[in-house]
């Protein structure tokens, strides 16, 4: 499972071994026991990455191998979902790719900007997302 922590210092991505249901249940129990409000709703996060990096192709390949409805790829220009079969080599050359992940947003208030986003994917897809997250473009001289 991937956990995106949104806070004042930015966003941090963590890989968590526990099932998403267990983590959310623990958070709900903690909120109830500490008399703190909790808000949970289905949501999504997206990550824009350059299409020319190898990790994008690796992710697209992983998505074609399994049943993963929680992740989709879009071109930044159209923002419409691409079917994995329709991704042409030119899409990887000429466009940035938006990686959209569906999951659960958990926070203390519906309008809060700080909170946690959870999504559960296959190990291979999670590893590809982590690679994309840590991608640093080469500095041009």
From TrEMBL:
The protein's name: Uncharacterized protein
InterPro entries hit by this protein: Alr0857-like
């Amino acid at each position: 499972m991937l956990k995106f922590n949104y806070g004042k210092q930015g966003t941090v991505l963590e890989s968590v071994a526990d099932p998403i249901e267990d983590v959310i249940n623990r958070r709900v129990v903690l909120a109830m026991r500490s008399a703190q409000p909790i808000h949970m709703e289905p949501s999504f996060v997206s990550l824009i990455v350059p299409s020319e990096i190898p990790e994008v192709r690796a992710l697209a390949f992983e998505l074609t191998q399994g049943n993963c409805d929680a992740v989709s790829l879009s071109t930044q220009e159209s923002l419409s979902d691409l079917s994995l079969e329709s991704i042409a080599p030119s899409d990887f050359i000429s466009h940035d790719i938006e990686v959209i992940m569906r999951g659960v947003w958990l926070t203390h208030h519906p309008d809060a900007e700080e909170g946690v986003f959870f999504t559960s994917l296959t190990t291979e897809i999670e590893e590809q997302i982590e690679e994309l997250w840590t991608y640093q473009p080469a500095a041009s001289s």
